[in-house]
Queue: 4 jobs
Job 1
Amino acid sequence: MTTERPSVLQPEMPPTRWGDPAHETGLPDGVRDLVGLAFPIQDTPARADVAVPAPRLGDAQLAGLRAIVGDDHVVLDDALRRQRTRGKSTPDLLRQRAGDLGDAPDVVVRPAGHDEVVAVLAYAQEQRIAVVPFGGGTAVTGGLVADPAGLGGVLSLDLGRMRGLLALDPVSSTATLEPGLRGPEAEALLAAHGMMLGHFPQSFEYATIGGFAATRSSGQSSAGYGRFDAMVVGLRVATPVGEVRLGSAPANASGPDLRELFLGSEGAFGVITEVTLRVRPLPEVKEYEGWRWASFADGADAMRALAQSDLLPTVIRLSDENETAINLADPESIGGEGNAGCLMIVGHEGTPAAVAAKRAAVTEALTALGGTPQGSGPGEAWAHGRFNAPYLRDSLLDVGVLVETLETATFWSNRENLYARVKAALEESLGEGTMVLCHISHVYPTGCSLYFTVAAPAGDDPLGRWLPAKAAACEAIVAAGAAITHHHAVGTDHKPYLTAEIGEIGVEVLRAVKRAVDPAGILNPGVLIP
């Protein structure tokens, strides 16, 4: 087939905020009332007048890059370099707002396809320039912050020109996509053929196919459609020493699955230039609803029962008592009545017959387990605002409220221990006025993911308050024997804790792979590997 591309390119995110400024609505009344009671309101304007550091690359090096991708695609513009500085975690935004641009790349290079990526990497290796692949810029664990020590500069490899649907195999239900396609663009191209991926993380509107693969992303519909890495059947990867192609069959026994070396590698082992994925027909019906549980533990037990009975719906999420009380599923109703207990969101997608059968079975099971149906209202409210939480985070930062998230995963038998340890660590570190909210965002027969949202007074040094709190939470996760990350990746933030999870031998394996595919150490140096 001829390569198909999006008809309209989405706008860039501003460097100090999330998303499209036109979609910001400010603080809902319920949130404003809550903030007024719990936090001191203060003005925290973002600085936009700070110059980006001068590029460290010489004229000859820039000429070499222009010879590969063309003059128009080697960009030194301060505005674009600022947009390519770090990701969208709260610490990233706080540094940007304070005018700290010390991690800005020296140049932004925009290749048109796989062959140009290969050539750029070979040239960067020769010139000893660090290369940081850039997709949507949604990283929240420091994955876009390279350590250029011993190298001559940092090149942001912007994959935004590589936004094509390269192949569609309707017989095998696979599609090959380029890495720069954002979530909505990929779904729109597939929808034109009656197909979909079904991968909808909170970053969906801006994150890219390459980013999903490089971070082993998990979406809000993972209960029904699976994690992104489970959708991947093939990869094409550019490395400084050559090309890697993986995925000649749906499954094989040809030794360890080398796709796993690059899924989750965060650009440290290579640049993913093509991803072949399992696709499925568009659902004819989507139905979302709410369920109420007496406690977080009761709701979690119900989720476990569904998962272990092979009864999972397409979407299932459970908020703890605190998150339910302020009703993050529908921020406009914060402070409303009737918020006792814990709210579960359940969603079913598929053909009318399949949805009706699964919904009936799930309803029977949840009722028997003690759940109370709440109708479609809570579910539809969640579906309507499922990608809006980062906008609320930014609005809270504007008025002096420190807000950040973190996530982990563990086995069912360890869930309560992990939950209690992380919550206590955050509350103790941040002190009076701290709110710790949690929901179970992804479930498996053997365990689940816990996703924490933290709000506290920002004070005069919000970054200085958050970093020790995040460290305390990570130490609590390690002490509980849980995963340091479930779907946000390692980056630089979680790197100090990776050895505790995979062991010294595991770290040596990663280092050996790095030496094999990136002998000069130019690929996203300082990320992932302790």
Job 2
Amino acid sequence: MYKHIFSSVFLAIIGTSSFAQNAPTIIPIETRQNVLVLQTDKENHLGITYFGKKLSQATEYKLIPSQSRQRDGNAGIYNSAYTPAGTWNVSEPALQVTHGDGNKSLDLVYVSHSTAKENDNVSLTSIVLKDPVYAVEVTLFYKTYFQENVVEQWSVIKSEEKKPITLEKYASANLYFIAKDYYLTHYNGTWAKEMNPEEEQLTAGIRVLDSKLGTRANLYQPPTFSLSFDKPATETEGKVLLGTLAWSGNFKMEFEVDSYHNLRLIAGINPYSSEYPLASKQEFKTPSFIYTFSENGKGEASRNLHNWARKYRILDGEGTRMTLLNNWEATYFDFNEAKLSELFKDGKKLGVDLFLLDDGWFANKYPRNSDGAGLGDWQENVKKLPNGIGYLVKEAQKTGIKFGIWVEPEMVNPKSELYEKHPDWVIKQPQRPEHYMRNQLPLDLSNPEVQDFVYGILDKLFIENPDIAYIKWDCNATTFNPYSAYLEKSKQAQSKLYVDYVKGLYKVLEKLRTKYPKVPMMLCSGGGGRVDYEALKYFTEFWPSDNTDPLERIFMQWEYSYFFPSIALSAHVTDWGKQPLKFRTDVAMMGRLGYDIVVSHLNEKDLQFSQQAVTNYNAVKDIIFQGDLFRLVDPKKNDYAALMYVTKSKSKAVLFSYLVGNRNGDGSDTPIRLEGLDASKNYKVKELNLYPGTKSAIKEDQVYSGEYLMTAGFNPVVNARRTSVVLEIEAM
């Protein structure tokens, strides 16, 4: 097969089908730097002919050769924009259906397309495809964010058949690439071991990333990846695509290298046990697949996603975040009003904005004194909190801080009044033993009554306590023994459960945000068990991991940062790990800063340091939240790590550096070449978060040009005596 190279971008092969037309229709999906070109063949099938860097002359897209689906006598290898199953295609399909008459064949031909501009930056292209035999229609949507170089892609499937059809597989996106080689970076882990990266070269066959966990779907693998072309991309070099699926349930991503060494990517909801019936005139909208492409390495690609996410997806992404003190590791389930009142004072003394009351505040018949009981019974525990949540809110306010609270509204303990009253609300097989994670089971959010109940938990809290300033929303169990009494009673297919659960969750969150649009909420799921860009429409931040060991967090936060900006990442100072308080604090400052410590146990210097650190953080957090992130020294490949955040104006920056390995007894004397500054500006460097009684190794009166800092570099002097260093860099 011949491969055509245009400006070092990837081409794809076009195929033939069954319906003739005179001239091809060419549809460019453009951002500021990149383009995806779709084109019909002589029989009106839609394929991908070009993906990568945008050509300066768009008229040249028509010059890209269109090749037949049938080459060398081999049929069915094709670069379809949305591959159907059951007719000419023998590759992995994006869409597979069973028609009302039982037939499983499907073909899709181009009908029409249109592009509408939402504003100067955002455009939406819709492309209508139809089966020429059966009354099935698919509309492909490509939403482009021009300046950010981000594409959001989904499909809407509609049936006009008289009988219901069944969607066997229904992907969000189908892309096709040509390159010399392909390198996939994906992630694995489990509780407290999230976001472990693995890079592999893709070879012939299909590599699958997926989840079948239902709730807490990201526990073992998140729906995110990076894909490098020709060679592995670095931070600053190489062609790379970052992709993620905006879906809070089971997902599946397939990377198929075909017999011509071309790559087909199909991403969407996992069809596992999720055959979805579609009645006549009904539509099914798939979740968004979001991606960005860069020819300048992973750093630029991640900044694309960060800029997009802050502006268009994360709730209040261009705003700010509060610092907080959480009681969990200070008290666990053992607290009362007096203990909490003292913690309010500790929070005020520390200088944070908010106190967060964690698990254990509710249930009476089966008190929530451990994780084995009470979940689902959302009344204040009268023994612990005789005066209720309202009293705590007022006491916190009297102390001078705000009050937030933990909930886990999707779940239930079998030892609860809710379980006793509504066993039919619980996801469980009626004839099999119950199987628990953290002694609990999910509620059935496919059931509208359960949706109302879950919404009511939060609504009641806000109605009775309108000054609640923060919510931590947890989800600690996966779905075992999937079965819905509601779907059975309403004579709907059990295979709808996995999908309708997530749809039900979004209905609750949408209703909640309509009434309470601005209350900050943390998305938590036993750590990072549910992190995606559909959920983050409703949450201001997420909890990356229950593992708060600062050394481990450096690695986790590094990997999360490819896909999510720091404003969305919650990071707490705790007693985990062996590192000193300064190290733990410096690491937590790379996100939304919180504390989960016993403030009264801090010695005089530790308290003084912590108070000053909160002040320092408040002075620079907007740079961390809204600045461009540059990863400078990779902790996986070096004994130390370094990264920096730079304002859009290049006038201010914050540099974080850490010693992560110490085999030689010291750090590195090699200067770090900074990035993102203005070469023509002059800068001063100041060290932040100095521990009381120590002096900086940095000459704060020295002036450096941006050119010097980015070319000759700067040594933050990280070593065994200075294991973490935070620097503020400011233009003069």
Job 3
Amino acid sequence: MDLLDDESGSNAHDYTVSEISGAVKRVIEGEFGRVRVRGEVGRVSMPRSGHMYFDLKDDRSVIAAVSWKGQVAKMAVRPEEGMEVIATGKLTTFPGQSKYQLIVDEVEPAGAGALMAMLEARRKQLAGEGLFDAAHKRAIPWLPQVIGVVTSPSGAVIRDILHRLRERFPRHVLIWPVAVQGQACAPEVARAIRGFNAMKPGGPIPRPDLIIVARGGGSIEDLWGFNEEAVVRAAFDSEIPLISAVGHETDTTLIDYASDRRAPTPTAAAEMAVPVRAELASWLAEVQARMGRAARGRLEQRDQRLRDLSRGLGRPETLTQPARQRFDMWADRLGPALRTLVLRKGTRFAPLSARIEPRLLRQFMANESRRLEGFAGRLRPAPGARLRRAQSDLDMLARRLQAANARMITEAQRRNREGGAQLTALAARLDRLPQAKIEALRERLDRLDRMRQTLGYTETLKRGYAVVRGPDGVVTSAEVAGKQPGLEIEFSDGRLAVIPGGGGTSASPAKPKPKPTKKKSDPGADQGSLF
């Protein structure tokens, strides 16, 4: 009987559990080595250690997968449950649980369709929470003082943005450098947005009035960091208005939906951020001109209206002449009328005077005296009572007058204080106004002087030109120069005398020349011929 066929197995080698586990580990690792496995991501867990544990499955089988903390940090795309991926790693065993598993180094979506499906699912989820609602979007400031830019400091994007801002309307720019792709992109961009919002107004670093998140074009994998939920929530929570300029015009990321404004390119974001200063200056000049024309037209219209009304009034002497004539007429008639009245009254008084006798006058006086004595008896007690009433009324009026006088004095003092304060403020403004006017005029004079120096012909001489003069003035052609007995050439550092026909030259020392006086007969004497 063959020992190998011994069914009892009394001669079989006794293996330990560790030996069997090690043998299985060596077989699996030696047979497969590094593999690429395609499947759907199942359960995903990530404990506090930083390692990631997940399942890869299809319709019939499941493989346990694990990625260590360092490998997770390097992943461009992290697996999520329900996502179809291609995992690359080494197949091995875990003796502690008698199972085999895949140590995953790299995870990539199984085609663009999977990424787009995951992106659409995330977009619907965030839209359902209201992160993309138009009611939450803020208006972009018309002319921000400080602009914060979140982008890579070494790319062409920041140069394009700065160049465009310099061309349109230079502003103060704060750059927050971040990674614009890879695993570090999403947390750095979210941290930059929240960092700009955390700045306090009036602090040592000015708080931006506008944030631009920018990146150049790329594939969907390159732009994936701007689709992460952390970036979208940071853009939604930003109290500072935010413009997203990620990718080209055809690229769309989730931050575009959450931002207050989307720009097709970073250059377009800079154009949205600030207006064109030259256009503003032109518009202001046009408005000023229109305002001046309107004011002049209004004044001319009022002046013409006043002249028309003055013509309708007529001359002053025409208005007073009839009244003066009537006065002269009544003055002439007044003397005869008075004399006629005296004669008529005298005629009526003569018969009455003949009837008046002394007895009648004494009797009339006696009657009137008795009447007066009766009235005096009745009036003797009345003055005292009336005096007392008048005294009481006078006292009451005196008290009211004193109270009113006190109020008037208080009010006058208050008005004097207010008037003094206003007068002091006006005096301070009046003191500052001449100085400000003088400073403005001095600045304008300096600008005009610099323009005069720039446009003068001496500046042209410094660029390599010269002025040719003859006995009759400036020479402007070779034909005229050949006929001159002598020429003088002025350079930027001095003058040189030249005798045509080989007669030699003589140079004057390089010293400043007084500016020639401009003559009416020679309009170009102060400029000369430049060649």
Job 4
Amino acid sequence: MKLTKLSLVIGTALLAIAGCDDGDDGDNGLTSLIAQTQLEVGDTNCPNGGTQVQSGLDNNTNGTLDADEVLDTSYVCSAGNTSVATAELLTTLNNPWFGAAQNKIAEAKSVWQQVIGTQPRSANGGVVTTKVAGKAKNVILFVGDGMGISTVTAARILEGQMQGGNGEEHMLSFDMMPFAGLAKTYNVDAQTPDSAGTMTAMMSGVKTDVGVIGVDEDIERGDCATVAGNELVTALELAEIAGKSTGVISTARITHATPAATYAKSADRNWEDVSDMPEAAVVAGCEDIAAQLVNFESLLESRYAGLDVDGLEVVMGGGRRHFLPKDAMYNSPDAVSSVEGDRTDGRDLTAEWQANYMDGVYIYDQSGFDAVDTETTAHLFGLFNESHMQYEADRANDVAGEPSLSEMTSKAIQVLDNNDDGFFLMVESGRIDHAHHAGSAYNALTDTIEFAKAVEAALALTNDEETLIIVTADHSHVFTIAGYPKRGNPILGKVVGIGSDEPATASDGMPYTTLGYTNGRGFRNLGAETNADATYGLDPAAGRQDLGDVDTTSPGFHQEALVPMSSETHAGEDVGIYAQGPGAFLVNGTNEQNMIFHIMNLSGNLAEQANAKL
């Protein structure tokens, strides 16, 4: 956040911030303004540096506090060190860690002063606070699927080490966001959750059961008849109704649980196409998730009388098989299966989408992606793989090439920001989760690093005065950072203790890695293999292995697992939430996961704007 910009403030108590409305404030109906200026060390008023705070009334209504409009000037000065009693104190004050932390505190104080001002009193004696509702023109929700706290920590260290540092001191792009908190991830019926229930909570503001999409807990999973009346409205749908542009991106199949929860209503997350559905559900009129995506515009309009929307502007991900008939004649040029499509109803949904959007662009490979003109493209539909997109480390092996998550994020924003009313975008790194399920820390961490690059790309293309960006995860994994490795020890390596150059050994006499899994398929030594899913062609090998001659930092190494499972499982602990932009300060403390929707809704004023259109 910019630390010296003006803050528009209104006379509403902070505790009632959710009810803020537009209106005039200050004396004589004029708008109160507060300007804050950071003062360097050596300033006349604050010799040790600090902040100058000026307040007044915007008499000429130009949105700027001019010199002749200033009514009060005050200073918040940093305290100086006038004496040092002991050598130990001098050492502390001059220590770089101590100094860096002091600077961080000063930055945090300035951010909070910007958010809430220095609490001047309005004419009626109330506290003047920053307006929140409707401040975010754009909202971007980033979801690292399966990106628990240990994954963030390990990815941070790995990226730092890849850049030549020790790693521990490094920061991922979203680590540097000014506000953060935690989300409790449990589902209504499950202590350890799945992506369908967690993403539905984030998108709708309502917690629900495992395995269902866009519906509340009154649903019975797999029973089509229970969907009607239990549908939830998502933040993306509210943005669409409000007239904003909307987009969904994922490195997983675009019909997979996380992206599907932005646009679909389904009694089962597995109903990705009609061939996945029981006959009774098809006969009852339930529509598969891929069909709901292609028909998103008409389905949304059918729920509200008189509504006219223009549909999703950007959709990019994998999952082409769910949109094509089970017939080889419909194979894409880069199909890897003899019959690419899975649909048993004969429908080619890619053709139906193109018929719906004659001004749209359908793409399936890197060259098509590169050719997209973001200034003239009204609708963009990209399906880059018949199933999930490649892991980032394995992306070069794709048959026809496919874009990275950061490339897709940049392209999406450049299309969506053509709308003067703003946009809503959801970006998922879906394959972090899949790499963990396969027991591959290498792939999980390299996909997390690419995810952080996508966040960085979004930060570069947007203005934090008008764009709320939230970064979080739907759930975590049973992924641990353990042992007592020395500082800078390769995070993918074997544990080497402080003062040693040799791997530490466990009580069984064998070395062990810093990273590991509580359960899963277990040890693999596949060398240069960059596709984590190669593990599924081998029998589980859980338990201890002799790693003495194994390069545990290689892409094809899969960590040991304690409990043998067909696939490593999710975990139930809290996950991080990171935020920047209007309303970001509402992200703090420990929250129910569905709180994320309410922060997006308030900051973007989504429900109110949508209601105004109905």
